[in-house]
Design goal:
Length: 148
């Protein structure tokens, strides 16, 4: 079952359960996926493209979460956390720090990177491997740590 099929099924369940929060988040993600498909000139997105849209939505909410925390808007912080949790249900299981370290280390050896100047080369190979499974900033920090 693809992500969009799961979203459609979960949307029906949320409607029947009158879960307005989950329903709103699912509708928003489906809309983002539809907009992405239109932008790419396709009828259906691939699994990878769906993951890209989902990851983008989670990242936007995490960025907003930081801003709302700084502004002291606790009411909005709790809403965003709930939305992030709903979105995380559709993302693949996130990598642990140890798993991420292993992937980055393996990739550094694979591309024969030696220092910080090879950062771009390593990142361009690592990111497709961990797509949807790790946050880009975490990956960036790990690559920097291992290249130092």
């Amino acid at each position: 079952m693809t992500i969009s099929e799961r979203l459609t099924e979960d949307m029906k369940v949320a409607m029947k359960a009158r879960d307005k929060k989950r329903l709103g988040v699912i509708r928003m993600v489906r809309s983002s996926m539809q907009n992405e498909a239109i932008k790419l000139g396709k009828n259906d997105l691939t699994e990878e493209e769906e993951l890209t849209v989902l990851s983008r939505e989670v990242k936007q909410r995490k960025d907003s979460l930081q801003e709302f925390k700084q502004a002291g808007r606790d009411d909005l912080v709790s809403d965003l956390r709930e939305e992030i949790n709903i979105l995380n249900d559709y993302l693949p299981k996130q990598l642990t720090e140890e798993e991420l370290e292993a992937v980055v280390s393996e990739t550094i050896n694979e591309v024969d990177a030696s220092g910080k100047s090879d950062m771009g080369k390593v990142m361009s190979v690592v990111m497709p491997k961990v797509k949807g499974k790790a946050d880009g900033t975490q990956v960036n920090k790990e690559v920097m740590k291992q290249l130092s």
